[in-house]
Amino acid sequence: MDKTMTDVVKEKGTVRDIRRPPSIKLRRALKGHFGKVYAMHWAGDSESLLSASQDGKMIVWNAMTNVKTHAISLRSSWVMTCAFEQKKGKLVACGGLDNICSIYDLSQSNQSTVLQELQAHDGYLSCCRFVDEKTILTSSGDSTCIHWDITRGEVLHTFKDHTGDVMSLSISPSDPNIFVSGSVDTTARVWDLRTGTNVQTHVGHDADINSCDFFPNGQAFGTGSDDSTCRIFDLRCYGEVNKFSMPDINCGITSVSFSKSGRLLFSGMDDFSVHAWDVLSPGDTHAFALPSPHDNRVSCLGINPNGSALCTGSWDFVLKVWA
Known about the structure:
Blueprint: H1 5-9, H2 15-18, E1 26-31, E2 37-42, E3 48-53, E4 57-62, E5 67-73, E6 79-84, E7 91-96, E8 100-105, E9 114-119, E10 125-130, E11 135-140, E12 145-149, E13 154-159, E14 166-171, E15 178-183, E16 188-192, E17 197-202, E18 209-214, E19 220-225, E20 230-234, E21 239-244, E22 253-258, E23 264-269, E24 274-278, E25 288-289, E26 298-303, E27 310-314, E28 318-322
Antiparallel strand pairs: 1-28, 2-3, 3-4, 4-5, 6-7, 7-8, 8-9, 10-11, 11-12, 12-13, 14-15, 15-16, 16-17, 18-19, 19-20, 20-21, 22-23, 23-24, 24-25, 26-27, 27-28
């Protein structure tokens, strides 16, 4: 606590110093949706990719070959989130304005048949993530998060401390009992599944937190907000350690995701752009922006588990894969 993050790491050099220009390029444009793409999520194999659109479809892609492997017709087209089960990759989930988390089994002959419908939220489903093959977490506009038993379709615990819509959640990569949620109440809260309690509450944002993502080692997390900033909060010091913003960026941040090493924090923007922030640099400079932006709002993005590719989804109906 005797120095700032910038002072501690300034001798390491920035990403711009180490690699100029950035080598990331557009590799694939995944076209097949006929509505706004609202959510995407990588599978554990780092090749399969799930996307959900307001055309009423969820599509599973092989992102390396640009091939659609599954297409699921949804009961409600107003979908806002989707998730891939990471270990075996057989289960997928989605939800939205129907207030329901719907689970599908990709190994079934009729993949559009719902395996389980989880109903308890009183508001829209903003995010869902599998904890394992048997349980899943959801966040909602009713200001709560719920931990579910998928097999029985029952609520295991409801997390209620937020005072506004919960927009995003992320499970710790080092401890699946820990997750973080971001809310329009401008706070990010860390929860423990074992006790069902809010163990940390992080403040600093001035507007809605739209997205959160755990740092790869599980000891910190990043957030993106409508206040045009991304921030990093550290669980060990219980505080904010870096803030990323630019004077010429004055729009909401819809989604954030760390690179595999954690050196870069990617953010999707309302102004159609995607920026990469150098975690070890001063917060008023960013590493680079992706060279071929979308034609509409970037609604979602994510790095695959092995760190080899970034996918961005947009309201222009297209997903783009970068490497």
